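W.,

You were right to be curious about this one. When I first looked at the sequence I had no strong expectations either way, so I just let the prediction run and decided to look at it fresh. Below is the sequence, 303 residues in total, followed by the output.
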Amino acid sequence: MAVYTFDYSLSYNPQDLTPSNTGFAVPAPGTLSDGDADLPGTGEFQVGESITYTYGTGTTETLLMRGTVEINGVTFVVLEKSPISYYAFGMTGEPSTFGPISFVPPSSLSSLSFPVCFCEGTQIATPERECAVEDLQIGDMVLTAKGDATPVKWIGRQTVATRFGPAERLMPVRFAAGSLGEGLPHADLTVTADHGMLVDGVICHAGALVNGTTITRVPLSEMGETYTVYHIETEDHEIILANGAPAETFIDNVSRRAFDNYAEFEALYGDVPEMEELPYPRAMSARQVPGRIRHKLSTANAA
């Protein structure tokens, strides 16, 4: 069992990778311990592993390991309490204090983002025909929802390990044919839970639209130990057609470092300016989805 003794703890905002308070919190000594002997690399903190957080007079909490991040020159261990609530724990002592611990990966939280991609086999509209997302190449033209052709700048590829991380975030979402109304998508469409679909002028994350009947989560047992997902990046944030349904291209509010082939992008383009997001409202959770959209999807006829 690995044990990490920390001197500081602070709440942490995973959206912009900064502490939510200024500077360090007051000292709050405690320990993080790893007791899962079934995981590979026993004795190490592994991303996706449950970690026991002990503080104060012995109060404990179970958190999810997310990696490390540098804040003001100090390495913080980052753990997730909920998808919107993170803690960061910092140790300012000697490296030996860390004991037999290796972090996977020892980088920033941005590299540990959940996938926001198309699953293999998704048919993307091009000026000539539909093309499976995994067959697209840099420079190929894809059609936007407005009917314009725009070149593919990069295809991000990510391998998802189904054993680690919260199942609800890792389960893809399947849209049955016709589930979005007006016959769309024209064939079953499977995307990751955080992928944005444009529905009646709102970019809705797929997981926020799950209704248990025509829009469902795909059990991880169907996905195997790993599965591969793909994201299309164009020069600007665009809405393209996936199995006929409007879906967003990559927008850099998710780090490119999350992708297996990030080194390819870096070699081709290096540092690039931040992208400007399309001027649509975004619904990231079910409660943010407008009632008119929920009603539309409840009455859509799946083929």
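Here's what jumped out at me. Confidence is low (pLDDT under 50) at residues 12-27, 38-43, 92-113. And, maybe more interesting for your project: The longest strand covers residues 59-71.

Coffee later to discuss?

I.
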